[in-house]
Fold each of these.
Amino acid sequence: MAEPTTAANRSRARLATIALALCGLMHIAELVLNLQPMIAADSDALEPWRTLWVALPTLFAAITFLFWLHRAQHQARRLGLPGTTSPTWAVLVWFVPVVNLIQPMVVLGDLWNHAGRERVGSYHWIGIWWVAFLVGGIASARATRFAAVGNPLLPFQLLGDALLAVAAGLTIVIVRRLAKAHEAMAVA
């Protein structure tokens, strides 16, 4: 099996960045649509399409991000960076209940810290990203659950869309900085 190259991970980082930008834009569009009372009044007929409108880019972003994360974890090991997480576990932690509340932040935090503060910046980016992602996801899930029983909670949906758009933007920052740091370390 061939070792992953820096160029291959750069391509994955670009694809993940594009997918995350699309996902963030869809959340911003949902936020704007939810703020428009005239559009919201007619949204019952559009609801299945609006769900797909956000779900498909989100799924694409998740898949491309996880492919990038697996490769980044593998590349970090190849570069000799200390790490406690295997590339496979770095992806699986997103799907294990309860573990997925903390471990994804730890995995990215390890990658971030081992890349070096001078290359990527302060660890605070990881904490802010994780809070935005977690709170945004919980707020959106609550709004969706209540909407399913006919009692929509618009403030939760607005909060969820806003925070998930912020989380998508911060994920782009994280992916780009880590990819650039790994590339610089590979050259050095």
Amino acid sequence: MQKTLEEIFGKEGHDERSLKFLMGALSKGNQEGFDYLEFKESLLNLSKLNLTDEQSVSSAYATASTIGVTADKLVDSAYHYKKLIDKERLKFDQAFQNQINSKIDAKKEEIDCLKQDVQTDEEAIQKLKNKIEKAKETILQAEKEIIEEQERINATKLSFDKTYEQIDSDIQNDIKLIKNLNTNG
């Protein structure tokens, strides 16, 4: 072959990396003598002559048949190369699935775990908010009770003080009166 496999099979829009990978498999499995790959190269050369596909195939086959190549041999060798790229497709699909499993599925599991952690934390936060709210309500109630209790205690003290003052005043008046008895008598 005078042309590279990339030149023979490469078309605009092909991914260069994928093309090199597949062409490497074809190159490793290249059969001896004139086969499908050399036939494909002949078709590429004939494409420059602006022939129809049928004319290009007929012309390339006519040339190949002069060296003993049959249509069956070309088809068999084309199937050989198709099997090679099919094997590479299977390998690629397995590697692709492995990448999905290792990178995508692992990330999905990580996301699921994080979502669960977030939910658990949000529930804990909500419990703390409820606890804080309850504590604030208890504080407000206790402060209200303190004020009420302080007012009640103060009212009791005022009542006591008033009663004490009256009784103390009565006793002091009585003491004065009794003392006056001794001095008057």
